[in-house]
Design goal:
Oligomer: single chain
Number of domains: 3
Helix content: 40-55%
Bound molecules: flavin mononucleotide, iron/sulfur cluster
CATH superfamily of the largest domain: NADH-ubiquinone oxidoreductase 51kDa subunit
CATH topology of the largest domain: Rossmann fold
Amino acid sequence: MGSFDLKIISKYFDLPEAKDVDYYVQHGGYAAARKAVRMDPATILGEVKASNLRGRGGAGFPTGIKWGFVPQGSQTVYLVVNADESEPGTFKDRHILFWNPHMLIEGMIIAARSLGVRNAYVYMRGEMLREYPVLQKALDQAYDKGFLGERCFGSDMALDITIYRGAGAYICGEETALLSSLEGGRGWPRLKPPFPAVKGLWGQPTIVNNVETIANLPWILENGGQAFADLGVGRSGGLRIVSVCGHVNKPGVYELPLTVTGRELIEDVCGGIRGGRKVKGVIPGGVSMPLLTADELDVPFEFDALQNDERIREVEVQPGVKFDLGGGRTLRTMAGSGGVVVMDDQTDMVSACWRILHFFADESCGQCTPCREGTGWLTKVVKRIDRGHGRPGDVELAASIADGIAGNTICALGDAAAWPTLAFLTKFRDEFEAKIRSSTFVAQQRAAAEQGAP
Ligand SMILES: Cc1cc2nc3c(=O)[nH]c(=O)nc-3n(C[C@H](O)[C@H](O)[C@H](O)COP(=O)(O)O)c2cc1C
Ligand code: SF4
């Protein structure tokens, strides 16, 4: 990996003075928004499309295309920034909110101009006790300066931004659950279509975008969409912020080129595995993403590369039986939310799998049966393997439960539990089998057989 110094969003990380509006403005901040409020909305949309900016919240959907789904001539359009960040292993958005709140606000002004938004919201995870006052103060400053309100930068554009604090449910990060919660209802996901861009908040067209996605907009408008696209690779523009945790020497939040591979991230950026140990598995984008083994890390941690790389194995839990994960997809992984979890060669993969499943079973909203019941069953089966009570056939049982969940639920939380489980079961099957072989259940059966029990 060559040296790479450009920083877009992270340039203000660890710089407390950048939270102040005057510092931010003195260093070129709000120039793009000042320009945007007098620009033709379609020109801004053109730049965003040209930039190849893809959503940083999980799915990597192209931002410009999503904006283009808002029906022409809509009277009321809402913008909602998804700052609910709750995926275990993901902690980049809170870093942006804490260190660079004005870049997010500036991005929101640009998006609002392009989309014709009068009222925008930031849906913020309730536990972000440190970030909330920082963002609220930055908003107050932006109002005081006249950047927000009835006449943004003295133009005829009006924009109000309100922070709405969630109450600590992971499911409220899913965009339709988020909108239900924002409306004052229960945070239950809704069936799509209709997608929020057509029918969202209070039934009006609504764009939901991740914090990092929106914070990239000032740079795009300042430097041009093409320049942003050129920073990236293939169909993905710009840089990417990843949060790295687990068994590395230097965990943290890093803004990197999209060409950086998993191995480079661990060795060159994060200083290798702690204690000089070897890597065993890496989750590339939050725990809802299937993990990679040590020999699958020479792939750029980029949206398309992680999904399509042929070296990433297909799921074959039973000989000859491949699990179809919907739409004919075989199990590959995704860049997801940028939350990288690194596990060294001492990690117990059965325990890791159980711990992740416990999270999803706990956070399932309970609306649909495959997810409500399936995540609970899966957790129980994997837990009993982990705790030494596994039974022959439990690997196949867990795989078939996971297969029954995937693709059969209202929202992607079901897939988020099923896909990683299938990856653990296939890539580390020997560890599951070893625990089953040495389980008390198997020992009791053996003893009974030896005593001639029927
Ligand atoms: C269970 C679940 C939780 C999610 N949590 C978040 C979250 O905390 N933050 C986020 O930006 N996106 C989250 N997403 C993705 C959102 O539904 C949505 O796709 C995203 O906010 C769109 O923004 P983007 O296009 O900028 O990525 C979640 C999705 C699911 C299924
Ligand atoms: S998949 Fe799970 S979290 Fe999503 S709607 Fe169904 S029960 Fe709720």
